[in-house]
Amino acid sequence: MKKLRVFSFVAGIMAVAMALTACGGTTSSSAPPSSTASPTSQTAEAEPVTITYCNFSSSGENEETLQKMYEAFHEEYPNITVEIETIGFEDYFTQMQTRIAGGTAPDCYELNIENFSAYANKGVLAEITDVDLSRIDEIALSAFNINGKQYGLPESFSNVVMIYNKELFDQAGLDYPTNDWKHEDVQAAAEAIRALGDEIYGIYQPVTCNELYKVAAQYGGSLLNEDGTQFTINSPENVKAAQMMVDRVLVSNVQPNEAQLAGMGDWDLFMSGRVGMIYTGIWSFATLADGCDFEWDVVVEPGADQKATAFFSNACVINEKSENKEAAATWITWLCSSDAVAQLRINAGWELPAINDKAALASYLEQTPPANRQAVFDSLEYLVLPPTIEDYSLMCDIVDQKLAAATSGSMTVREALDEAQSECEAQISLS
Predict the structure, then answer these.
(1) Do residues 286 and 417 both lie within one domain?
(2) What are φ and ψ of residue 26, in 5° steps?
C-alpha cells in the first residue's frame, strides 16, 4: 500500500495537537528567473504609490470584507493605495493568462495552490524577499516555495469536512456520525436516509478529479507516482475508490444522478433538507448557517484504509514585471499575516488565515453553527495536497470527462480510468 502523503498544518489551537509532518514544497528542475520583491520600510512620509491587486476568492460574499482589510491597511500605510479588482473564479484564470501575455497583469494577484506551479515555473512571478514572515505558518509557506525561493505567500487555508443534517439522522433513527466513521458507515446511514422518501438522498459527493485524488488517498492510491514522474490514474486503488463513488449513484442511488439533481448544487440540496451528508469545505459554514432551517453539524471526513481530506490554500503573488514590487510586497505581507486580517477572516467565516498564532485562531472555535468546529482542526492531521503539476487543469478536465461517463453508465469505471490514464500520458508532460 502506498503511504499517504500527509500535509500536516501547524494550526493547532487550545487542546489540538497537530502532527508536524514536513511536506516538501513545490519543486522544479531549475528555479525560474525573476527579480525580487523586497520592500523598504513604508512610512507616512514615503512617496505615494498606487498598486493593483486582483483576486477571485472574495467574489460573491466577501468583497466587503476585503475592502475592510484594505481600509485597515491603508490606515497603517497611507502612502500605499491599492486598487482592488475582483473576478469570479470561472473567468479568473483565463483573464489572468491573457493579461500576463499582454503585459497588463496587476502588480500583485491571487493564485490557488492548484495553479501556482504553472505560473511560478513560467517565470512570471517575482521572488519575495526581505519581508517579515515570522507570523506565517512555515509549512504553509513551503507550498509556495520553489528551490528555496519564495514566490507566493499563503493568505488563507481551508479543508474539507463531512457536514450532516441532524434532523434527517433523527428521522432515520440513526446515531450521529463520529470522527471514527468509515465509508461503510456512511453507506449504511445513506441507505437509511434514502429510505425516508423518493426526494430524499443519503449523500452527495461530486464524482470529480478534485474528489478522486482525495478518496484515492483513503485507499492508498494517488493520481501520480511518489516522485511525480508518472500518472497512476488507473491503479487498482484508484479504481476501487472511483467504483465506490460511482456505485452510490448507479447501484444504491443514495446519491442523486444528474437528472435527479435537476440542476441543484450540493449546498442547495443540503439547505433544502433533501440530503443527509455532504463533503465540502469550511468556507460553506456561513452560507449554511444562514440558509438552513434545521440543525446540522460536522465531523472529520470518513475514510477507508486510512483518512485523507483535501487541503486548499490561496496565495498572494507579485508580478515579475511590476514597477511597484516593494509596495506590492508590503501589501501582500500585511494581507497574509496581520492580526486585523486574521480577525476579519474569522468573523466573516472566510476560510482561515495561514498564521501560526494560536491565540488569534482561538475565537474560531467559539462560533456556531457548527457546534463541532473542533473537527476542522482534527482534520488537519489527514490533509493531502492535490497533485502539483503545471497542467493540473487539463488533467482534471480529462479525468472529469471520464468520470462523468462512468457515472452516467456509458462506460465502466475501469474503462474510464484507463482512458484517462492514456489521454493524460499523451497530452501532458511530467518531465
Answers:
(1) yes
(2) -60, 135
Task: Determine the Cα angle at 337 with ends 332 and 339, to 5°.
Answer: 125
- From residue 234, alpha-carbon distances to 224, 227, 303, 396 in Å are 10, 17, 20, 14
Question: Residue 272 is part of a domain; what is its CATH number?
Answer: 3.40.190.10
User: Would you say 126 and 319 are in contact if contact means Cβ atoms under 8 Å apart?
Assistant: yes
- How confident is the model over 406-418, as a mean pLDDT? 98
3 state SS of 278: strand
For 152, the domain range is 42-157+312-371
- Do 269 and 170 sit in the same domain of this protein? yes
**Residue 87: band (very low, low, confident or very high) from pLDDT cuts 50, 70, 90:** very high
Evaluated on CA atoms 70, 72, 73, 79, the torsion sign reads positive
> What are 357-403's pLDDT values in tens digits?
888 888 898 899 999 999 998 998 998 988 888 899 899 999 999 99
**What is the model's pTM?**
0.82
Helix, strand, coil shares, percent, the chain, to 5: 40, 20, 40
Beta bridge partners of 112: 314
Q: Which residue has the cell 483518512?
A: 307
The 3-state DSSP class for residue 276 equals strand
Co-location of 122 and 180 in the same domain: no
The total domain count for the chain is 2
- Whether residue 25 lies inside any domain: the answer is no
Q: How does pLDDT run across 160-174, given as a tens digit for each residue?
A: 999 999 999 999 999
**Residue 379: inside a domain, yes or no?**
no
Cell 477571485 -> residue: 56
Biggest CA-to-CA distance, the chain:
69
- 224 located within any domain: yes
